[in-house]
Backbone:
């Protein structure tokens, strides 16, 4: 299996970094998310080095939606990353992690007045998704007696090879303003007294395993960059979005393009476009998944094994903790973490504890014979894993542990039963003695 370098099999056990997964499970219990901080740093460095080799003025905005834990954000902030934030919550987290406001971009197709007011107050640039939003933001900035720095989110109408639910730049998608309408949007922005158009932004989709769609998007963007520069827009940044996919099918030797492949395919087109426009803006990109996905595994304990029309392995983590298989039919590799050195001999279906037929983490996997008390590891769980978790079936969310060399520490405690009722209120007529 094509494992990332921080995952190794030693004897019968799966290790992550310098830690035996069976020790981690013994110490912290299961289910358990485990993140290797050094792996995030290595993924960030690969992007930074590949991009800066092609163009010096680069900023990497980590897509905070992928994994919003403060320890992850702090790791990336410490390396110089900014962030793509998609809500006031993500904005707060990115600022709390120490990212300067000017290195964030407030994205979103449905921002509230209070979202806009927060962006203005914190001086975070806004990616504006509609003319309606532009006018509201102009009014919000006027009220605050200031000017809002903006980009427009371009809908480049690009078809991409990925799951339809995560293709974001189709002509039919809800995001952005159609590319042919963008110049007139900038014309209106230039006339708004409290708007300062300083950037341009697009995003075409997620889990894309080719660089060619990014190159096509870049071409569309650079055509527009030329047009709006002629209108008098002084572009300080061009944000080409995120989206390099990762090789989830590790057993099949699947490959993903590297940041180097991306930089070589896209940056020359960017350089050519800005040369023609006679400008030298920063190049921004917004990777999420490819920075954090493979840093993290989800450890789950085997509760029981049941031979039926399939042989089910019933584990203690389900779509409450990792919804991707149920939501997008996503593939995540599964390793028997305490029997990792043994050959697969039995075909299993890994089922979670949730009361839904669709609560299957993995279908038809050849694994060594498993029994109650064994441990499985679900790989590549660091992006859109915990971030999309829920308390469905009233299951407290599990803890998250972060590793730094030989050290291991909680980056989020597990919830307990009291957390389930913490935000619930008793209506007065249900109070005892009412
Ligand atoms: N920037 C914007 C504006 C985005 O909408 C996204 C992802 C990203 C950056 C980061 O893209 P990445 O580098 O992670 O591909 N929950 C889905 C993925 C949804 C992605 C939505 N937007 C999944 O689990 O596959």
Residues:
């Amino acid at each position: 299996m094509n494992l990332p370098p921080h995952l190794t099999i030693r004897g019968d056990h799966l290790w992550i970094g310098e830690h035996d997964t069976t020790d981690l499970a013994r110490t912290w219990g299961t289910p358990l998310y485990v993140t290797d901080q050094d792996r995030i740093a290595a993924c960030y460095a690969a992007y930074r080095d590949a991009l800066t080799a092609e163009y010096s003025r680069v900023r990497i905005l980590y897509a905070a939606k992928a994994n919003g834990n403060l320890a992850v954000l702090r790791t990336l902030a410490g390396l110089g990353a900014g962030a793509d934030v998609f809500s006031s919550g993500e904005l707060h987290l990115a600022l709390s992690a120490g990212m300067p406001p000017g290195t964030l971009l407030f994205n979103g197709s449905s921002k509230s007045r209070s979202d806009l007011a927060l962006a203005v107050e914190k001086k975070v640039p806004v990616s504006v998704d509609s003319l309606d939003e532009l006018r509201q933001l102009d009014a919000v900035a006027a009220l605050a007696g200031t000017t809002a720095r903006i980009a427009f989110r371009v809908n480049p109408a690009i078809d991409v090879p990925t799951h339809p639910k995560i293709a974001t730049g189709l002509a039919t998608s809800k995001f952005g303003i159609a590319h042919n309408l963008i110049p007139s949007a900038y014309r209106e922005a230039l006339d708004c007294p409290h708007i300062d158009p300083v950037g341009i932004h697009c995003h075409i989709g997620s889990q894309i395993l080719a660089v060619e769609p990014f190159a096509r998007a870049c071409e569309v963007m650079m055509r527009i960059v030329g047009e709006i520069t002629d209108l008098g827009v002084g572009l300080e940044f061009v944000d080409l979005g995120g989206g390099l996919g990762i090789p989830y099918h590790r057993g099949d030797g699947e490959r993903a393009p590297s940041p180097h492949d991306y930089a070589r395919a896209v940056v020359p087109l960017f350089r050519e476009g800005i040369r023609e426009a006679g400008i030298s803006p920063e190049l921004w990109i917004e990777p999420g998944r490819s920075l954090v996905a493979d840093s993290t595994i989800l450890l789950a304990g085997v509760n029981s094994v049941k031979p039926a029309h399939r042989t089910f392995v019933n584990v203690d983590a389900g779509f409450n903790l990792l919804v991707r298989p149920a939501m997008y039919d996503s593939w995540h590799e599964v390793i028997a973490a305490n029997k990792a050195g043994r050959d697969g001999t039995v075909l299993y279906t890994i089922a979670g504890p949730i009361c839904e037929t669709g609560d299957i983490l993995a279908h038809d996997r050849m694994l060594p014979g498993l029994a109650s008390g064994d441990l499985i590891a679900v790989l590549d769980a660091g992006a859109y894993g915990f971030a999309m978790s829920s308390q469905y079936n009233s299951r407290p969310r599990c803890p998250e542990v972060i590793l730094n060399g030989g050290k291991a520490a909680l980056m989020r405690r597990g919830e307990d039963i009291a957390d389930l009722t913490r935000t619930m209120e008793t209506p007065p007529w249900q109070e005892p003695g009412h």
In short: The pocket of LLP is lined by residues 63, 66, 84, 107, 166, 168, 203, 206-207, 241-243, 286-290, 324, 328, 383-384 (CB under 6 Å). The first helix runs from residue 21 to 28. The radius of gyration is 23 Å. The CA atoms of residues 132 and 138 lie 10 Å apart.
